[in-house]
Amino acid sequence: MTDLFRMPGLVSSPVTVGGHFFRPPLPAGYVPRPHLCEHLLSGLDGRLLLISAPAGFGKSSLAIEFCEALPSHWQSLWLGLSERDSDPGRFLERVLSGLQQFFPQLGEEAMGLLRLRQRHQPFAFEEWLDSLLDELVLRLEPSRPVLVVVDDYHLAQGAVLDRCLQFFLNHLPPGLLLLVTSRQRPDWHLARLRLSRQLLELHEQDLRLNDAESAELLARQGARLTEEELHTLLQRSEGWVAGLRLWSLTAQEAQEGAGLLPMPHGGEGLIRDYLLEEVIERQPAEVQAFLFETASQERFCAELCDALRDSYDSAAILQHLQAHQVFLVPLDEQGKWFRYHHLFSDLLRSRPSAGLTQATSSLHLRACRWFSTQGLLDEAIEQALRAGQPDVAANLVQSLSEEQLLAEQNVATLLRWKMHLPDSLLASTPRLILLYSWALALACQLDAAQELLSQLQRFLPAASEAEQQGLLAQWLALSGVIARGRGETARAQQYCSEALGCLPEDRYGQRLMCLSSLANLAIVQGDLWRARTLNREALDSAQRVGNPLFEALAHYDRARALQARGEVQRALQEVQRGLLRLSGLSGPRQYAIRARLTLYEGFLLSLRLQPRQARERLLAGIVEARACRDISLLIGHCVLANMEGRAGDLSAAHAHLAEAERLMHIWDIPPIYYLAMITLCKCELWLLQGQTDLAGIWLSRLAQTYSGEKAAAAPEFHPYLPWHVDLQQARLERQRGQLAEAERRLRALIERARGTGGQLLQALALTQLTSLLLDTGAEQEARQYLAQALEASSGGGLLPFHELLVAQPDWLRGQLLGLPDSALRAALLAELPRACAAAPLSAEQNAAVVEALSSRELAVLQLIAQGCSNQEISERLFISLHTVKTHARHINSKLAVERRTQAVARAKALGLLA
Predict the structure, then answer these.
(1) Which residues cross the membrane (predicted)?
(2) What angle do CA 860, 865, 866 make, to 5 degrees?
(3) CATH no. for 34-115+123-211
(4) 283's torsion region: left (phi>0), alpha (psi -120 to 50) or beta?
(5) Nearest to 474 by CA among 422, 513, 531
(6) Smaller CB count within 10 Å for the chain: N or C?
C-alpha cells in the first residue's frame, strides 16, 4: 500500500483477514466510485483486471471498494506487496498460503518444494505452477469463484516474476480471477488477453476524479471554497486524488493558524514531499536529470528534448516515463507530444538547482531555435521571450505574415508578446508596425492601433514605387477596419473600397477583411442583396486560396446575411459548413473564427427554440473566444441572458450580462462595441420584471443614439440594433397600456422590414402585433397577421412565436391545425406540448384553482409575475429559499403548468393577476 494510506487522519486501523492477509479499510472521507466498480464488475468473466496509474490516483482504494461490492458468492484474497516480494519464490509462497485459506491442504507438497529451494540456485517456477494449477482445478467451485488482488505490483515487479505471472494468467483455471494494481504496466502479453476479451483495464484517465467527485472529496475534508477557488483547485489538481487530499491537510493547517488559504503547488509542502519520495527519488539518475531539463517546456516531444539536452536518448526515456506512469500527460493520439501534470511540473521547476546542468534561459533559447526550424513560429517567439531575448522575438514576429495573423486572429498571443517588447522595437520596421496595428485593431484597441499606424509615415516615401503603393494599400485597409469599429460608416466604406481597388491578389487576408467590413455595413444599411454579393466574392476568394480559416470566416459572414434575411435554417447549414472546414485543424491551438462559428451556431439554435443544444454551443464558444480574447463572446453572454430571461431565471440572466461587461472593461474594449447591446438586453429583462420606468429611460436613450439624421452606426455584432430597440419600445408601450402607440410602431416597423427584405425582423414585429390584436379582441385581423408571420418565418425561425406559444397556445394550435402541412407548422406544433402543459380548464375548475391558492402562494405568484428570482422572493417575503421553491411547485401544480412563464399567463387568464 502507498504511504498515502498511512498518513494521519486519512485511514483507520486495517482489518485483518486470515492472519497474514488483510485488506485495509477505505480511507476516511473516501468518495465512492460506483461507475468504476460497475465497469470492473463487467470484467468478472475474464482473467485479469488491471488498474495502472501514477502514484496517488486511488488504485488501492478502488480495489478495496470493488472487493466490498463483489457479488455475495465471490471470495477475495488480498495481497499487498512490498520490495521483499520481488523474489518469485516468496511471492508464490504468499499466493499459495492465501489460497490455502479457501482450500485447506492445497499444494502441501508444492509448499515444501518452495521452502526447500535455495535462492541462489535456478528453480523451475513454471513447472511448479503447472503442478499447483492442476491441483487447484480439482478444488475450485464455479459457484464460489475467487478474486486474487495483487496490490502495488510495481514494488515487486521483475523479469522472473513477470514470466511467472504471465504463465499463471495463461493457465488460469475457471473460477479464479486476478486483479492487479500497479504504477507500472506489467510486461505481460496484454494484447492477446485484450483480443480474447479476457482483460479489462483502467488507466490514469479513468481514475481521475471528475469535478463533482473532486468537489465532494473536498467537502468531506471540510474545505470551504469560493466558486473561483474551487475552479482553480480542480484545474490545477487534474483529478489527482492524493493532490487533493494533501492540499486539504495543508489548508486545514493554514485555516487553524488563521493564514491565507493556499492554492495547490507541487513545489511546496506535503505535495512536494510526496512527489519527491514516491516518484522522483525512485527514478534512475539519468531519468531525474531528464525531468529537470525538460520541465521548462509547456509541451515537448522526443526531438525537442534531444535538442534541449544535446543527446539522442530522449525517446527511450519518454517510453520509460510512460511505462512507469510518471505523471506524463499525452497531448495527441499519435503519442508524439506530452506535458507533465501541473503539480508535477511545479515541483520540477521549483528545484532547478537539484538536477539542472545548464541555465533555464539557455534551455529556452535552444527550444526557440528548434521550434523556429520546425516552422512553429508562435512557440519559437514564446521561447525567445522566456529566454530574455526580445530582439530575437521581434525578428521572429516579422516572419509572420499578415495573412497568418488575420486568419488565426488570436490576438491574445500577439498582445502578450507586445507587453514584453520595447516600444522602440514595435515601431522599428514597417512590418512590425503593420502587424501590431492589425493585432490592436482586431483586439478593438482602436486608438492604440491608429497611433501605431501613424508611425508608418516615418518610412515614407518608400524605396520603390511598388513598395510605396503596397504600404498605402495596407494603410487604407487597416484604416477602413478601424473606421468600421468606430462606427464611421462613410469613411469605412471609402477606405475599404479604395483598398480593394489597389490591394494585390496575394494580399487576400486584407482583402477579405475589407469585404467582411463592407458586407457588415450593407446589413446595417438594410442592403441585404449587396451583402450577399460581397459574401459570395469573399467565399470565392477564400476557396481559391484554400485557407480553411478564411473559408470559415466567409461562411460566418454569409450565415449572418442569411439570418438577417430570415433564412435561419440555411444560416445554420452555412455555419456547420464553416465548422466542418475547420475540423481538420489539430493541436491545442484556439481559433477566433471557430469560436465565432460556434457562438453563432448557438444563437441560431436559440432562434430554433432548441435551448439545450444552444446553451451547449454557446458555452463552448465562450470558452474558446475567451482564450483568443475575441469579443464575439459578447454574443454568447447576451444570447444566454435572453434565454435565461425567457426561462424565468432572471438572476442568471443578469449574471451573464455582468460577466460580459466585466470582460469588456478588463480588455479595455471601447463602449461602442458592447454598451448598446448589453443595455438593450437589460431593457428586455427589466420588461420581464415589470420595471417599465427603468426600461423606458434606457430605451429612449438608445433610440436617440441610433435614430434620426445623425444616428450612430449599429455595432458590428448587432447590425439591426435600432430595429430591436423599436421592438422593445413597442413591448414597453403594451405593458403601459399604450396599445394604439404600440400598434402604430409595429406597423411602421413591419413596412420598413419588408422594404429591406429583413424577414426575421418582420416576423418578430408581426407576431407581437398578433398578440396585441388578440389582447384587444381583434381576432380576425390577428389571424391575418399570423399568416404573414408564418410566411416571413418560412426560413425556419421559431423564436418570434415564443410569446404566442406561451400566452396563446390553444389559439395558436387551432390556427396551425387549419393550415396545410409545412416544416414550420410541424415544428411549432411540436413545441406546443412543452409550451402548453394542460388543456383549458372549465369554469368550475377555474373557480376551484382560484380557491385552492393560498394567500402566501398568491404573494409569491405576484412577485414571480414581476420577474423576481427565487432569492429575491425569499428576501422580500422573509421566507427561506426552500419555502419559496415549495410554493412555486404548488402554484405550478394547482395551475396545471410546468414553468414560471406559463403560471403567470394562466394566472392572468384566471384574473388572479392584473
Answers:
(1) none
(2) 100
(3) 3.40.50.300
(4) beta
(5) 513
(6) C
What are the residue ranges of CATH 1.25.40 in the chain? 530-630
Contact 405, 438 (CB under 8 A): yes
Give dist(CA 896, CA 674) in Å, integer: 41
What is the C-alpha separation between 45 and 42, in angstroms, rounded? 7
Mean pLDDT over residues 355-374, rounded?
82
Lowest mean pLDDT among 204-208, 422-426, 711-715: 422-426
- Label each residue of 84-99 as H, E or C: HHHCHHHHHHHHHHHH
Residues 202-210: what's their mean pLDDT?
87
Residue-wise burial string across 78-99, b where 16 or more C-beta atoms lie within 10 A, e elsewhere: bbbbeeebeebbbbbbbbbbbb
CA distance 64 to 400: 56
pTM for this entry: 0.65
- The three cell numbers locating residue 396: 521572429
Q: What are phi and psi of 330, to 5 degrees?
A: -70, 145
Q: What sign does the dihedral 905-909-911-912 (CA atoms) show?
A: negative
User: 913: buried, middle or exposed (CB in 10 Å: 19+, 13-18, 0-12)?
Assistant: middle
Q: What is the dihedral of CA 425, 428, 430, 436, to 10 degrees?
A: 20
DSSP 115: H
Residue 266 sits at φ, ψ, to 5 deg, of -65, -15
Instruction: Report the distance separating Cα 572 and Cα 675, nearest Å.
Output: 27
pLDDT of residue 186: 86
> Taking residues 487-496, what's their average pLDDT?
88
Rounded Cα–Cα distance for residues 308 and 290 (Å): 10
Residue pair 137/9 in contact (Cβ under 8 Å)? The answer is no
Which residues does 887 contact at the CB level (< 8 Å), separation at least 6?
Answer: 856, 857, 860
Q: Which one, of 96, 167, 177, 101, lies nearest residue 135 by Cα?
A: 96
Residue span(s) of the chain under CATH 1.10.10.10 come to 855-910
- Mean pLDDT, residues 589-612: 91
The domain 530-630 having CATH identifier 3.30.70: the answer here is no
Grid coordinates standing for 773? 390584436
- Kind of pairing, strands 176-182 and 146-151? parallel
102, pLDDT greater than 80? yes
Contact 312, 286 (CB under 8 A): no
Cell triple for 726: 423599436
Contact 868, 898 (CB under 8 A): no
Strand pairing report for 146-151 and 75-80: parallel
Q: 721-735 and 759-775 are packed helices; what angle lies between their axes, rounded to 10 degrees?
A: 0
State the chain's maximal CA–CA distance in angstroms.
Answer: 107
CA 812 to chain centre: 38
Query: DSSP character for 300?
Result: B
Q: Which of 808, 837, 810, 831 lies closest to 898 in space, CA to CA?
A: 837
> Measured between alpha carbons, how far is 3 from 466 in angstroms, rounded to an integer?
72
pLDDT tens by residue, 78-88? 988 888 878 88
Which cell goes with 35? 461507475
Reduced to 3 states, what is the DSSP secondary structure of residue 496? helix
Is 592 buried (19+), middle (13-18) or exposed (0-12) by CB count in 10 A?
A: buried
DSSP 8-class letter at 181? E
Q: Which of 13-27, 187-201, 393-407, 706-720 has the lowest mean pLDDT?
A: 13-27
Distance separating alpha carbons of residues 868 and 866, to the nearest angstrom: 6
Contacts of 788 (CB under 8 A, 6+ apart): 762, 766
CATH topology of domain 855-910: Arc Repressor Mutant, subunit A (1.10.10)
d(CA 681, CA 677): 6
Specify the domain boundaries for CATH 3.40.50.300 within the chain: 34-115+123-211
Answer yes or no: are the C-beta atoms of 359 and 294 closer than 8 Å: no
pLDDT at residue 844 in the model? 56
